[in-house]
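User: Mind token order:
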Amino acid sequence: MSDQVTIKSFKEGDIFAGYLLAQEVAFKTTTRGTDYLECTLSDSSGRIKAILWDLRAVEGEMELIQPDAFLKVKGSITIFSGRLQLKLDKVRHATDDEIVDLSDFFPISGRDITEMVAELDNFIDSLKDPWIKKLVVALLRDDKTKRDAFVRAPAAKHLHHVFIGGLLEHTLSVVAMAERACGHYREINRDLVIAAALLHDIGKIAELCYDRSFGYTDEGNLLGHISMEALWIQNAMAGIENFPTEIRRQLLHIILSHHGKLEFGSPVLPKTPEALLVHYLDDLDGKLESVFTNIREDASNGNWTPFNKSLERMLYKPHWPEVDRLD
């Protein structure tokens, strides 16, 4: 698929024939009683809504047209309500043998993975407290399985950093902001905050799956990432002889409270300066990434994005004028 035109480069009037991954699939009925197919298709560059008005154009078994299936499609790019849409002429299920490279269908971090891993290690090496450093090294360096998954995993299913490497990118962003905040608020325990920022979402490597689409594992649905990572951290602490009780208590408190509210999944509210800081930085980074993504991916010519469900608002797309330099 490497020479296939990507969704990001679609223009009105283009004819597309190729492979896309089905994210959402719905068979619907018009007001006149005619059945049709509405779906969301994706590749590594983005998503597009697609419509097949005549179900007789489905080749092969209709039951195989479902979410997480690779589809071979042909159609034309149109505009509906100011946004690009794929009007389908033909659809069929594609076998895995037809797909050469799965990475063609998953969005990937815009940052270089190797550079991010080096940045991760620099933050780990910067920890001064020997107990905290030993704990973080055990989880994010010595445990190769967790480390490899941490580098590849997305940060969420829908809300923010929904791409391969998204968890690492989000984590580094929170840590970088935490580093600056600790330089400003001198009473904050810097190593405690940096460690908590590094570990606050590590449970997502087991909560989320990303084989065909971004979703939740059975364990993720049943336990959630906060519960899983708290258990991992507790077990890692137990494996370090004489690990200090106060560090254990405070670090676990930050992890358990980092969603900020009980209704958002945290079993306790943030009750220390370090916990409040990590919560607000995590929340800020997630919300801003959602805003940037909405603005970046909106192909319409209007000043406003579609309604953002998580932020409960439309977003204004600023058009900054060119400003002459003051030399």
